[in-house]
Amino acid sequence: MAFNFGATAGAGAANPTGAFGGFGTTTTTAAPAFSFSAPTNTGTTGLFGATQNKGFGFGTSFGTGTGTGLGSGLGTGLGFGCFGTQQQQTTLGSGLFSQPAQTPAQSNQLINTASALSAPTLLGDERDAILAKWNQLQAFWGTGKGYFNNNIAPVEFTQENPFCRFKAVGYSLMPNNKDEDGLVVLVFNRKETDIRSQQQQLVESLHKILGGNQTLTVNVEGVKTMPDDQTEVIIYVVERSPNGTSRRVPATTLYTHFEQANIKSSLQQLGVSLSMARTELSPAQVKQLLQNPPAGVDPIIWEQAKVDNPDPDKLIPVPMVGFKELLRRLKVQDQMTKQHQTRLDIISEDISELQKNQTTTMAKIAQYKRKLMALSHRTLQVLIKQEIQRKSGYAIQADEEQLRVQLDTIQCELNAPTQFKGRLNELMSQIRMQNHFGTVRAEERYYIDADLLREIKQHLKQQQEGLSHLISIIKDDLEDIKLIEHGLNESIPIRGGVFS
Length: 500
Known about the structure:
- The protein is of the alpha+beta class and 500 residues long.
- The protein is built from twelve helices and nine strands.
- Strands 4, 5, 6, 7 and 8 form a five-stranded antiparallel sheet that branches.
- The longest helix is centred in the last third of the chain and has 70 residues, at 322-391.
- The chain is flat and about 130 Å long.
């Protein structure tokens, strides 16, 4: 086969390591590759284990090989090391959440930092106190260099130093996926629309990176948008055996393979910036994370964060150092909020559509009920006519006479004014009155919006002010008219006396 990563045993030559073929060494006997079953000494090595079984099982060959298969020899070459080496749980206690053991270099670094912040001896005068304050400001900010001695290199202040003030503790949801689920997250520096439009090409490219083996199938579990035009793609790989059974490749195994140098460079060419295995943390790992405060985080703050954890079974505290980390979490939160809003909009549209369908269905049910009632009446009329024709020419029988007497008695009781007929008429009158009043009230019922009511009040107020102004003008005009009339009345006798 062309899918080999080791030296061939007995062939006298080695296959090229870039062919991604067999994930291990092979003997002169050809056999199908890629098996997770227990070795049975058939002379062949499996693709993901040591020696391969003819069958396909889920035994112990995954990681228990003796150096011939992918189990142990994948530390060299391009071997698919993740599918044969012993499954080593990723120690999450180191790195971001761990507090590494103190080394002499770290002790000297801590001493130099304390000297730069409290007692620098760079200038030998009162300016050293100013320099100490400046170093403290840089340490609080988490950037810059602290000079404190002419003979010692300055201290590099980073945001991980214990004196940095721009730190906080948040909470993240712990994954609940099993390693057997085989879920691996790949973060692409591409938009979600581009990933979805080229999803088939992406699957084919990943299959080529895995060697193009026909027993492997790459599947996409989900695609999710991330901030900064990035996209998260969750994949898993299914391995099929010759006897028809299949199994997912474990997540840690697939992740370890993706982290190999040559495979990682191929993924980077596809635009992958980050890969990680989505597996749940073991109780021991969670305990280790909680017991050891992250580097640069005050143990008191870390203990308080553990106490304030709203859901210790599902959430785990994580440090947020610097504004970039805070901005990243804010973007992720905004993105998640948008996704939730989009999902709520879809649910709302579905509910509206269901309500419309319900209304249509109820109308159809009422229509079918009316049709059923009409058909029942028609059927009853047909039966009556058929029975009349069948009984024509026959004398009235005793049971029919008895039934006629009962019907006449019921008719008389209904027609009696003091009994059922009067009560029925009274009930019918009340029903008509209620229907009438209900219709009138429904017609007279109206509502006014608060803003509209406020505008109406403002308009009426302006009208009132206008009317008041007009009334005052009219009163002034009336007073002027009265004054004119009074002046005219006084001037008329005087003119009469002059002409007389």
